[in-house]
Every structure is written in C-alpha cells, then in structure tokens.
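Final report, closing paragraph on structural work. Over the funding period we assembled a curated collection of sequence-structure pairs, and we close with a single example.
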Amino acid sequence: MWLRRAFYYVQIAAIIAVPLWIVVARSIATEGVGAIGALVFVIWPTLAIAMVAVLFLTWGRKSVRSTRTLSWIDVGALSAWYLTAIGYGVAIAVADSLFAGLLAGVLFLVTVAVFWVAVWQLITAARKRVETVLASLDQTAVPAGEYQATRFARGDGDVIRIDPPSGSSSSRS
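Its predicted structure, as stored:
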C-alpha cells in the first residue's frame, strides 16, 4: 500500500524531474552525440506532456482520487517508464550514440504503452462505476402493480399522488 501511495505522489514530481534529468544529462555529455543531441530537445517536452496526460488519466479514476493510491498495473507501467527515461539520460551522459538511439525508440514505445494502459484503466473503472449505478437502479425499482393516481388541484399547480394497491405491503428490504 505504501508503494502504491508513494507512486501517486512521485508521479507529480516525475513530471519535472525526469525530463529535467534528460536535459541535464545532455549538458553532462562531454562529446557531441549528433542527431541524438538534437533528439533530446524533442524528447523532453514531449515526455513532459505525456506525463501530464497520464497523470490526468490516472487522476480521472475515482478510486485513485479517493484512496490516493495507484493500482499495481500503474506502478509497474510507471516504473518501466521512469527507468527507461533515466536510462536514456544515462546513455546520453556517457555519449553512447547507439545505446541512446535504441533507448529513445524504447522510450517512445513505453510512453505510448503507458498512455494506453492509463486510458484502458480509466475506461474500465468508468464501466464498473456505471454498471454499479445501473445495478443499484435495478434493485430499487418499484415492483409492478396497480397503483391509484389521485390528482389534487392547488393554486400553484396540480399535485399527483400515487398510492399502492390497498392490499400490498409497503415495506421493502
């Protein structure tokens, strides 16, 4: 439980820390990494925007907002995402162009996967809530019977009172 709650709060800090690490890693690199260096300036803002989108998708789930904990699927997906981004920064810092290029591709794929996992969980949670509400409406439905409607005329409009049949019990369980 504490790990899932920690990831709830880490998700906010990661929006700044992870893209910033990629920029700092690029400045640490002693040698130019060519196209990978230019790719950094495309990746870090895109990564920050994707992290904000995933944050709002996870906050969109009522279970996350009420308990302030993420699901284990969220923890696993975010762990893979953060570790891939940190690894990409390390590859840039040591000026390993091939490894940085590979990790950039992996980071893109992981980002897309994490986004769609968040969308899937939001849709699943919303579906469960709607099914719960509809099930509760089915349970509180009034049983069919012959009801008597009585109309009373008042000064501000008609009032209609519906009475159950005289022989039925009005208690529900």
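The helical segments are 2-28, 35-59, 62-67, 72-93, 97-139. The chain has a mean pLDDT of 83. We thank the funder for supporting this effort.
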